[in-house]
């Protein structure tokens, strides 16, 4: 009887181990497939950027070089578009910080009528087909004479980053150790002193990460910049699309694409240090 009981106990354990192993293998396989789906197109673009001769049916370029880098970077429109993108991103993120950070603090610390509904409303720009929303906004901007203007593009890009600038800072403010704030108040610190000395330093790394993500998102935004800004306002992504669609030399677009990887990589590496996978969940549930 003892032997039969021991055998019956081992069987379920062995079955669970087998199921877990199969699940792990399936997860690893899917992770590899997704990684390849992301990396392979990036490698192809990188090869095009540094290739001078690449003809079918060769799998790799027959000649590498920097000739197209020199030609691309010597164009005035490239530097004009890059400067415009940097100015736009800086202005949009600065305006978003002024508007959204106080709102994030209010969402994280206050309870008021319609709070949850208003909080969820910032998902609207990402919950519906984006281009349809942009067309509707463009019709409004046309009446306001904002089409083809710097501030028209800035406003449309501001809408695009509201979720980042609200949800992530809310999670940052909710993660503050309130015992430290209470201790500061107990020794006589006023609300403003508590905020600057206790609350803000703790929330600052995550807020900085949100600012970086917003900057990168604004820098790469294409649909709104093209629909609202064209033809007068040409950001770097819009120029890159023009190169790809209108230029016979594919390397021009590839070079710009590789250049655009740099700010994204820097911002995401820095932001990943501070934003965990549960940041959005904490912001939603606060």
Automatic annotation (TrEMBL):
One Pfam family named in its UniProt record: BPD_transp_1
CDD domains: TM_PBP2
Membrane topology classification: Multi-pass membrane protein
GO BP of this protein: transmembrane transport
InterPro entries named in the record: MetI-like (IPR000515), MetI-like_sf (IPR035906)
Segments traversing the membrane: 25-50, 84-107, 119-144, 150-173, 194-216, 249-271
Record-annotated ABC transmembrane type-1 domain positions: 82-271
Keyword Transmembrane helix: yes
GO CC annotation terms, alphabetical: plasma membrane
Entry's localization field: Cell inner membrane; Cell membrane
Alphabetized UniProt keyword annotations: Cell inner membrane, Cell membrane, Membrane, Transmembrane, Transmembrane helix, Transport
Family assignment from sequence similarity: Belongs to the binding-protein-dependent transport system permease family.
PANTHER family from the UniProt entry: INNER MEMBRANE ABC TRANSPORTER PERMEASE PROTEIN YDCV (PTHR43357:SF4)
Name of the protein described by the UniProt record: ABC transporter permease subunit
Native species: Jiella flava
């Amino acid at each position: 009887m003892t032997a039969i009981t021991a055998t019956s106990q081992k069987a379920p354990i062995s079955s669970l181990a087998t199921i877990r192993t199969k699940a792990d293998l399936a997860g690893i396989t899917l992770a590899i497939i997704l990684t390849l789906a992301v990396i392979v197109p990036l490698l192809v673009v990188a090869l095009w950027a540094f290739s001078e001769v690449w003809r079918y049916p060769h799998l790799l370029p027959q000649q590498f070089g920097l000739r197209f880098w020199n030609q691309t970077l010597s164009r005035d429109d490239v530097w004009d578009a890059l400067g415009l993108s940097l100015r736009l991103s800086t202005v949009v993120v600065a305006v978003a910080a002024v508007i959204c950070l106080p709102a994030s603090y209010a969402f994280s610390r206050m309870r008021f009528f319609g709070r949850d509904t208003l909080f969820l409303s910032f998902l609207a720009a990402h919950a519906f087909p984006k281009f349809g929303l942009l067309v509707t906004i463009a019709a409004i901007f046309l009446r306001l004479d904002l089409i083809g203007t710097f501030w028209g593009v800035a406003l449309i890009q501001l809408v695009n980053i509201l979720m980042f600038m609200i949800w992530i800072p809310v999670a940052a403010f909710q993660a503050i150790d309130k015992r430290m704030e209470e201790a500061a108040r107990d020794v006589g610190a006023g609300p403003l002193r508590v905020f600057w000395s206790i609350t803000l330093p703790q929330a600052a790394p995550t807020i900085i990460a949100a600012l970086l993500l917003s900057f990168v998102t604004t820098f790469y935004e294409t649909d709104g910049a093209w629909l609202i800004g064209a033809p007068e306002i040409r950001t770097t992504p819009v120029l890159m699309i023009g190169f790809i669609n209108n230029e016979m030399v594919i390397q021009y677009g590839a070079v710009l694409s590789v250049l655009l990887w740099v700010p994204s990589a820097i911002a995401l590496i820095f932001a990943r240090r501070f934003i965990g996978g549960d940041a959005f969940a904490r912001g939603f549930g606060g």
